[in-house]
Every structure is written in C-alpha cells, then in structure tokens.
Amino acid sequence: AQTVTQSQPEMSVQEAETVTLSCTYDTSESNYYLFWYKQPPSRQMILVIRQEAYKQQNATENRFSVNFQKAAKSFSLKISDSQLGDTAMYFCAFPFGSNFGNEKLTFGTGTRLTIIP
Amino acid sequence: DTGVSQDPRHKITKRGQNVTFRCDPISEHNRLYWYRQTLGQGPEFLTYFQNEAQLEKSRLLSDRFSAERPKGSFSTLEIQRTEQGDSAMYLCASSLLTSRPGTDTQYFGPGTRLTVL
C-alpha cells in the first residue's frame, strides 16, 4: 500500500521552542525525494524542505531540518526557534509511482501546528 | 519569477451549473498537476499533464470533470453539472521534469475554492 502517515493531528509549542513533526511512509521504490509543505490558514501551499532519499545527509533550510531514517521509512521535520509565522498546517508528501515516471504526490493527513506567543 | 497563478480564487455556484478554472504554471515548467483538497485533509491527486499530454487521471475524476492543457502552457479544469460534493479547494501545481524519477519539485498555486449551493 502507498501510504503516508502523520500521527500528530495537532501540536502547539511556545514561541522560540523547538518542535518535531513526524511522518512515516511505505514504499518499495528506491530513488525519490520526500517533501514537507506548509499551508498557513487560508494561504498558499509552500514548500518547506525536501530530502533526497539517496543522500545520507539530512536536509537543512535555515530553521527547518529533517531527520530522515530510510530503513525505518521515517521523515520527521524539526523546526528550531519557532516563530508565530510558523503557525500552519504541515503536510508530508511522497511521489508514489515516481519510478514509473509519475511524480504525483500523496500527502499525509497533516499536522496543525500552533505557535503560542 | 512569477509563481503558479489560479483564477478565480473563489467560485460560488448552484448545483447543476458548469464551472471552469484556470491555472497558469511557472513559465518554464513542463509538468502541471491538479489536486483537490477538502477541509482538514491533504490534497488528493486528480490529473497531470506533461506538456500538452494528459498522462494520468485519478479515479476521483468522474466523467463530469475534464482538464485540458492545449498548448502546453496554461490548463483548465471544467466541472459539469456540479454537485454539492464537488465543494473543495482545487489546487494546481507545476514542476520541471528532471532526468531522475522522483525528483521533480512541485510548486503550488493559491487554489480555487469552489462552493456548490
């Protein structure tokens, strides 16, 4: 089955704290990217970070980093020094079918993150 | 560099009416995707184009739905005889086909929110 699972429907943290959002997926494919997208309330879906599966080094983008465990099929997002603007719905996404030329994304159910002032 | 644009941003229609949405991708992107997102859920794949060719349609895309990308640039999504269950956010995304499967990065537009009364 091609599934992406986000087990935390909602999370909240104090401003400036660190928070980790979890994501697991199930695939037999070998080379792929994994993605985290952010969707603020009534706003556009924005790419936060992507991870190349064949790279052992975890991706980092400023305050955002991933912990990618390929064997465990786990792809968590860590947000350091959280800011009020980080309040959003966060989706993990995987391109199932990519080894057959289709890059359509399958999204998890999302984690609603609230940063508390 | 302009991003993905969608028009209209909001559409309210009565059940049974036809509606058409437009998506303009990032100019050099040759792949274009349509997704549907209902409240509190992640986006679900509907269909995608590579240049002007429609390469895959989800089973979510009933016969009432049709999509086109006539010159490989903008795309339209038409829903005929709308039903209340069609109420959702319709998202468009575009990407640039790369040489390695699974490594396209999709950039999303702001979406068109459809309400069927």
Describe this structure in words.
The complex is a heterodimer of chains A (117) and B (117). Chain A is an all-beta fold and 117 residues long. Helices cover 0% and strands 49% of the residues of chain A. Chain B has no helices and eleven strands. In chain B, the strands form two sheets. In chain B, strands 2, 4, 5, 6, 9, 10 and 11 form a seven-stranded mixed beta sheet that branches. Chain B is mainly β and 117 residues long. Chain A binds chain B through residues 29, 31-33, 35, 37, 43-47, 50, 52-53, 91, 93, 95, 98-110, and chain B through 31, 33, 35, 40-45, 48, 55-56, 91, 93, 95, 100-111.
Write the layout of secondary structure elements.
The complex is a heterodimer of chains A (117) and B (117).
Chain A: E1 3-5, E2 10-14, E3 19-21, E4 24-26, E5 33-39, E6 46-52, E7 60-61, E8 64-69, E9 74-79, E10 88-94, E11 106-107, E12 111-116
Parallel strand pairs in A: 2-12
Antiparallel strand pairs in A: 1-4, 3-9, 5-6, 5-10, 7-8, 8-9, 10-11, 10-12
Chain B: E1 5-7, E2 10-13, E3 19-24, E4 31-37, E5 44-50, E6 53-57, E7 65-68, E8 75-79, E9 88-95, E10 107-108, E11 112-116
Parallel strand pairs in B: 2-11
Antiparallel strand pairs in B: 1-3, 3-8, 4-5, 4-9, 5-6, 7-8, 9-10, 9-11
Outline:
Chain A is mainly beta and 117 residues long.
Alpha-beta content class of chain A: mainly beta
- Coarse structural class of chain B: mainly beta
Q: Which percent range fits the helix content of chain A?
A: under 10%
Give the tally of β-strands of chain A.
12
Counting H and I runs of at least 4 residues, what is the number of helices of chain A?
Answer: 0
Which terms would index this structure?
heterodimer; A: 117 residues; mainly beta; 6-stranded mixed β-sheet; 4-stranded antiparallel β-sheet; 12 strands; B: 117 residues; globular
